[in-house]
Specification:
binds guanosine-5',3'-tetraphosphate; 11 helices; 2 domains; Conserved Hypothetical Protein Ylqf, Chain: A, domain 2; 283 residues; Rossmann fold; alpha/beta; two-stranded antiparallel ribbon; 14% strand
């Protein structure tokens, strides 16, 4: 076990509830399997954050799937909405009913890979800006303890958790969501991945946003059509596919096409209690 994980494992001993922040659009790809190992039997809330961007039917299916795991509760919410984060406090109190009294604070710790919304959540719960929210992943690096003045002490992770990037489809889904920076993978390839995915899963959202009658035949043709619509042209009127991919991903991430989920529980296979990517297992 790496030094950072050892530190986290040690920290988990002293807390009552583990809050794992996931991106609701890709809850499996944005998880960290090592957290499973170090959390042992501690109660865990899988927070499906950014649910305002995710397909609500798929999010419900993820909640049912996660709640089959022992000691796990799943909660979709938007960390930006103070009213929604109140449900999280309630759930923590349910999971640690003997805590939250004077002298016995309820101790919760927030975990998650970069960019899932940990800082946003901490700031919303604290009611003030304590952690930096940014467009570059991995901005939060120091641990802090925050007294929420409701019997609960919140800490952020003493270290960074990373997703499992060995699996290519996981890497592409993370890049599509914006969790991986632009330098990690080629933008055009990510755009083509996202285009192929949207043609398969959400063709109606593409048609509604880009107003085409017949769906283009290939992901490349789709990016070209989108590029033409959005004015991503180079001299001579040719489409700049790289810029088209960037513009398409920007719109997708901002929810301009509607609420989409990049993976469903059915995409994942459970082998010996461990979730694995269905496509990778078939290969
Ligand atoms: P991190 O600490 O886990 O690295 O994530 P962080 O809070 O920095 O959030 C990463 C991005 O996700 C931020 O956007 C943040 O506003 C956005 N975000 C967090 N929670 C939610 C949510 O519930 N819904 C939506 N739609 N977005 C959320 P950004 O564009 O990188 O920064 P900013 O422009 O908001 O400052």
């Amino acid at each position: 076990m790496g030094k950072a994980l050892e530190k986290m494992s040690e920290a988990i001993r002293k807390i009552d509830v583990v809050i794992e922040v996931l991106d609701a659009r890709l809850p499996w790809s944005s998880s960290n399997y090592q957290l499973q190992e170090i959390r042992r039997s501690k109660p865990c809330i899988k927070l499906l954050n950014k649910h305002d961007l995710a397909d609500p039917i798929t999010t419900k299916a993820w909640v049912r799937t996660f709640e089959k795991e022992s000691g796990v509760r799943a909660l979709p919410l938007s960390a930006k909405q103070h009213s929604e984060t109140k449900q999280l406090i309630k759930l923590c109190q349910q999971l640690a009913p003997n805590r939250g009294r004077p002298g016995w604070p309820l101790r919760a710790m927030v975990f998650g890979i970069p960019n899932v919304g940990k800082s946003t959540l901490i700031n919303t719960l604290a009611g003030r800006s304590l952690a930096k929210v940014g467009d570059k992943p991995a901005i939060t690096t120091c641990t802090q303890q925050i007294d929420l003045h409701n019997g609960m002490i919140l800490s952020d992770t003493p270290g960074l958790l990373w997703p499992n990037m060995d699996d290519q489809s996981v890497a592409y889904r993370l890049a599509t969501s914006g969790a991986i920076g632009a330098s990690a993978l080629d933008y055009t390839c990510v755009g083509l991945f996202a285009a192929e995915f949207m043609m398969r899963r959400y063709p109606q959202l593409l048609a509604a946003r880009y107003k085409f009658g017949d769906m283009p035949d290939t992901p490349t043709a789709l990016l070209e059509t989108i590029g033409r619509r959005l004015g991503c042209l180079i001299s001579g009127g040719e489409i700049d596919v790289h810029r088209a991919a960037e513009a398409f991903l920007r719109e997708l991430r901002a929810g301009k096409l509607g609420r989409i989920s990049l993976e469903e529980p059915g995409d994942v296979v459970v082998n010996d209690g461990v979730m694995q990517d269905g496509e990778a297992v078939q290969e």
